[in-house]
Amino acid sequence: MPHVVTQSCVGDGSCVYACPVNCIQPTPDDPSFELAEMLHIDPTTCVDCGACVSACPVDAIKPHARLAPEELAFEAINAAFHREAPPRPLLAPVRPRLLVRDRGEDLRVAIVGSGPAALYAAEEVLTIPGALVSVYERQDRPYGLVHAGVAPDHRRTRRVSRQLDRIRAHPRLTMHLGVEIGRDLTHDRLLERHHAVIYAVGAASDRRLEIPGADLPGVLPATDMVAWYNGVLGADSTPVDLSHRRVVIVGNGNVALDIARILMMDPDALAGSDIAPRALEVLRASRVEEVVVAGRRGPEHAAFTLPELVGLTSTPGVSVRVVPEELAGAPAGPKVDLLRGLGSADGGMGRRITLRFGLTPQRVLGTERVTGIAFARTDAPGGEDLEAGMVVTAIGYRGDPVPALPFDAARGIVPNEDGRVVDPGTGAPLPGTYVAGWAKRGPSGFIGTNKGCSQDTVAALVDDHNAGLLRPVTSRR
Ligand SMILES: Cc1cc2nc3c(=O)[nH]c(=O)nc-3n(C[C@H](O)[C@H](O)[C@H](O)COP(=O)(O)OP(=O)(O)OC[C@H]3O[C@@H](n4cnc5c(N)ncnc54)[C@H](O)[C@@H]3O)c2cc1C
Ligand SMILES: NC(=O)c1ccc[n+]([C@@H]2O[C@H](COP(=O)([O-])OP(=O)(O)OC[C@H]3O[C@@H](n4cnc5c(N)ncnc54)[C@H](OP(=O)(O)O)[C@@H]3O)[C@@H](O)[C@H]2O)c1
């Protein structure tokens, strides 16, 4: 009975290291690992030992006979990947252990942020005997987007917090909640108390949609919508008005799909999840019948991933539809094939999500508040105005500058080389200063993608420690 990886895979690779026959691909040492939409078990070599099931932090792996009806598609998705994957070695890859020179005192590392990148960095530092880690988080709740981003109905994904709890409980880790670096404590002060500081501050702002009308009331960035339904402190009063029939979401990444699903699914199915009580109340009174998710490119370039599309199409009580002409000519592939099997938007009644393609936003319509949005066709003449009572921009996140650190405003990240923060003018590294996660790479990738990213940053830090490049601690207060 082979095992199957399902939708909640966060790609941290724990299963790969647990598997005795290396049947899970891609492996973290493979260049395609970072871009993979999920991991896949080869049904022809799986020995059914279940080691991967215990290793997975989000219960994403199941024996094939125990798949729920809405998960059956993942059996074929896992198998198809392996039909095309090149042959692999029999043994799973082994990550080299950190070799740390003894410098006569325990290594002290401060980590700013407490999201996945921060805690995976902490886990790696704590493999060094005697090393001490202090984590500083500005919110009163830890784990970053695991609480504040992951959708409340994605219960299995949110279970990754149990893995983070285990890292947090390490006796050589101290967590300071409600401390913002740059406001409550300076970078210099941190460097006096630690040999090194790792910034894992994420990318908390939204990318702005630069079109006329984008500032009208009724246009909301995804960051606000997500904070609202996840009950982030202060987001209760976000003006989410659902007293009309249609919402248009600009952008078609996984965040867009999350928002569309939360707006359209049965509120009773959300009750008991981590959704904010105020948001549930507003959703119960919602009159919205259709959410249109508008991508600017063709379906073969959709930013959402296949596992999330599979999950969306099996949301009870919601029909997911397409405009067939917008799929014409798109090359076949798992996503496009699945989209082609969906119903046509013409016949849509009831609660529905319409996935549109090839629409570039031009102008938000309305005078006092939004009444719709005008699109041009991206690769053809013509355009279309869509009526809407609310427009959500889900066009990606963006980092904010951290006081005392350089900032790459074009990319919205902390400029770095392999995790070492560098002065963009000279290219010289800032002593003892490192970056990991979305603040290092930009806002893309799954929770687990940050694990290898943080391990690479810690490897750079240890190299600098071994080379004697870290300054001594001058204060222990
Ligand atoms: C809406 C949304 C849903 C997602 N859903 C999924 C999903 O279902 N599955 C999945 O695998 N991935 C998901 N992701 C991606 C995943 O959440 C990210 O890959 C991951 O959280 C990035 O980790 P990070 O540690 O770099 O940043 P974050 O998780 O953002 O953590 C950064 C932390 O730093 C803190 N911080 C910032 N500045 C300071 C400061 N100056 N001082 C102190 N603390 C500070 C912040 O408060 C925050 O806690 C989602 C992303 C989004 C946006
Ligand atoms: N369940 C999950 O696993 C989950 C859930 C949420 C998020 N995440 C991850 O978190 C990361 C961030 O997700 P995201 O959805 O915020 O970002 P994203 O995947 O980068 O998608 C951004 C979308 O915005 C579009 N866009 C950008 N600029 C635009 C503009 N000016 N006008 C119109 N459209 C524009 C992009 O189109 P183009 O492609 O044409 O640029 C794309 O469709 C992703 O890696 C995602 O997979 C995962």
Question: What does this entry look like structurally?
Answer:
The protein has 477 residues and is an alpha/beta fold. It folds into three domains: 3-84, Alpha-Beta Plaits, CATH 3.30.70; 108-204 and 399-466, NAD(P)-binding Rossmann-like Domain (Rossmann fold), CATH 3.40.50.720; 209-396, FAD/NAD(P)-binding domain (3-Layer(bba) Sandwich). Helix content is 26%, strand content 19%. The strands form six sheets. A seven-stranded mixed β-sheet has the order 7-6-5-8-23-22-21, with helices on both faces. The relative contact order is 0.15. Residues 209, 250-256, 258, 295-297, 301, 303, 305, 308, 361, 394-397, 443-446 line the site of NADP nicotinamide-adenine-dinucleotide phosphate (NAP).
Distinctive features:
7-stranded parallel sheet; alpha/beta; about 475 residues; binds flavin-adenine dinucleotide; 3 domains; FAD/NAD(P)-binding domain; binds NADP nicotinamide-adenine-dinucleotide phosphate; 16 helices; 7-stranded mixed sheet; Alpha-Beta Plaits; 23 strands; Rossmann fold
**Arrangement of strands in the largest sheet:** 7-6-5-8-23-22-21
At the first level of CATH, the class of the largest domain is: Alpha Beta
Rg, alpha carbons: 23 Å
User: Termini distance?
Assistant: 57 Å
Q: Any idea what the CATH superfamily of the largest domain is called?
A: FAD/NAD(P)-binding domain
Tell me how many strands there are.
23
> Class by helix and strand content?
alpha/beta
Shape: globular
